[in-house]
Structure formats: C-alpha cells, structure tokens
Design goal:
This protein has 5 helices and no strands. It has helices at about 1-30, 35-40, 45-55, 60-75, 85-120.
Length: about 120
C-alpha cells in the first residue's frame, strides 16, 4: 500500500516538474525577449542589455529555469512585471474570488448532472 502511495507521489512530482519546465520553455519561445516587451522596441540597446543582466535573462534558459524553480520552492515567487507587486500577494489577494467561483460552478455542475441523470434514468 505504501509503495503504491509513494509511487503515485513520485509520479505526481515528476509530472509537475515536467509541466513547469514545458510551460517555462514554451513561454520563452512564444514571447521572445521579455525585456524588449517591457521597455518597448525603441529603447536603447544599453538599457536593454543592463535590464536583461539585472533580471538574469542574459543566462541560458536552463539556468533561468533552475533559478526560477529554486526561488519558487523557497517561497520567493518574484514580482509582477506589469504591476510590480509580489506575485504571491497577487495570487492570495484573488484566491477568495477564485474559490467562490470554483465552488459555485461545482455546485451548478453537480446539480445539473444529477437532474440530467434522473431524467436519463426515467
């Protein structure tokens, strides 16, 4: 029993690690250079290079991912590029509304499924 649970936890951790890496590298491929997106195309090359170095975007992608993963596990989720507020604070601030929507949609789905199931059975 315990070996089954441990295997499932290991598989879950592997899936989470694989998905975070996949999303991280796909976002880099699709979005391109985030510094250019932040500063705009008419920013000076020196400013772009300095900000890229300050944010760590001048390093290889796999090093950026490992640094991101290390900071994530340490609880430092970084700051939003758009609003400059801490990401964890932004997520926690929106969590009550997200949970409310989740519970209401689940209740609606279960109620509708039960009603349709009864109709189908009759």
């Amino acid at each position: 029993m315990w070996s089954f649970v441990l295997r499932r936890i290991g598989a879950m951790l592997f899936a989470i690690l694989f998905l975070t890496a996949l999303i991280f590298f796909l976002m880099q491929a699709v979005l391109g250079d985030p510094v250019v997106l932040m500063l705009g195309r008419d920013a000076e090359a020196e400013t772009i290079a300095r900000l890229r170095q300050d944010l760590g975007f001048d390093r290889p992608a796999h090093v950026q991912y490992l640094d991101w993963l290390r900071r994530l596990l340490a609880g430092n989720w970084g700051r939003s590029f758009r609003t400059s507020e801490p990401v964890l604070q932004a997520i926690l601030g929106r969590l009550p509304v997200t949970l409310e929507l989740t519970v209401l949609s689940l209740l609606l789905a279960v109620g509708l499924a039960l009603a349709l199931g009864v109709v189908a059975a009759v």
